Amino acid sequence: MTTAYEITRRILDGRDGEFPDRPETIQALPLVLRLEKTAVPPRDRLLAAAARACAALCFDERVATDPFWARPYGNWIDARVRKVARRARASKWERVQRIPGVTMVEVDEERREVAAARAFLPSPVNDVDPVLNKLQITGADLPVVVNDEEPAAKVDGGEGSGSPAPGHAVIYIDTSLGMSVGKAAAQVAHGSQLMGAVLSAELSAQWKAAGFPLEVREVSAERFHELRQRVVGADDLIQTRWITRSGGETEPMVVVQDAGHTEVAPGSATVIAQWVPCAAQG
């Protein structure tokens, strides 16, 4: 039986099933970011919630076994895997929970929610669920905090799953592009989806069981360039139209290049996803 992992790995083939004269082929996966008036989340944690929500939906076995999920997901994965982020608060946030999808929550040390986002089944961009279509895409932003430090390997991970994590993903954003929080959310979601696809089947399954632990770091242009050079200078470099990767299936790094429909120029490298294996215990 085909698995969610196998279906999602089709993204690595560089497929492009969009045809401008057939609007139904232009597909997008909606994301909704929770942005309350009184409890403003840190930008990096909100973006992490969006990335984890996307990964959780993409590797949910219903995209392989449930026709209601599998049909729209398969159509989207064979197109350009666009993602569009919107925002919601209060009753609107509660309302979108009733639409099929996956919500992920970021918590603090005391397990209190600090950020949340929900990913939904893809659809043609001209046939979005009316409840989602009414939500605003623009008009909200959060302060950017630059973090150029090298990530440390963790002993274990997992946001509330109880399962040990084999490592965690770090998704770096090039702050020099000046992306809005919505645009950045779509880009880190690309990064998390790709990370789950390029990892080996075993590591990807373990990452999923641990709750897709990851962190988002917004970095300077210099740091982003340094990270990109690690990828493009590697001996095992693999390139497709929008994806550049190296590191194989055990320590991958993936550069995401944007199609340039909004905010950035076509071909811009927007995020880099890196797998950081756990440190040995003891």
TrEMBL record:
Coiled coil: none
Pfam families for this protein: PTH2
Sorted UniProt keywords: Hydrolase
GO MF terms, alphabetically ordered: peptidyl-tRNA hydrolase activity
Residues making up the signal peptide according to the UniProt record: none
InterPro entries: Pep_tRNA_hydro_II_dom_sf, PTH2
Tagged with keyword Disulfide bond: no
Keyword Acyltransferase appears in the UniProt entry: no
Protein name, as recorded: peptidyl-tRNA hydrolase
Catalytic activity: an N-acyl-L-alpha-aminoacyl-tRNA + H2O = an N-acyl-L-amino acid + a tRNA + H(+)
